[in-house]
Design brief:
Length: about 110
């Protein structure tokens, strides 16, 4: 976590990947790994890690938000809409709502 906080997400991801292998059921390790992957711009991997958290605990609004953001950044804007909407429905935080609005605006613009 210190590496992630200090701006070394790739190094953090490398360590957290090993930690996730050693403790495959740890949600906290998986969340830290997902954040490190996202901050390393490894969006597909981050989406997989956030999806693991959502599947393990479907009440995790942050995991839905992270999944939506990772999908959005990986270019799958249409798929990003559903997890972002779930995050907003569960906890309408300003940054969740803002991300969902941006994704929906992008989709509308593409359809026009």
């Amino acid at each position: 976590m210190k590496l992630l906080e200090e701006g070394s997400p790739a190094a953090a991801a490398a360590i957290l990947e090993r930690a996730a292998q050693a403790e495959p059921g740890s949600r906290s390790i998986r969340e830290a790994l997902a954040r490190a992957q996202f901050n390393s711009r490894r969006y597909d991997e981050a989406a997989g890690s956030f999806r693991w958290i959502v599947d393990a605990n479907p009440t995790e609004d942050y995991a839905y938000f992270g999944l939506g953001m990772a999908l959005w950044r990986s270019g799958d804007i249409e798929a990003a809409q559903e997890p972002l909407a779930m995050a907003v429905a569960m906890r309408p935080l300003r940054h969740y709502v803002s991300a969902l609005k941006q994704v929906r605006a992008t989709l509308r613009a593409r359809q026009a």
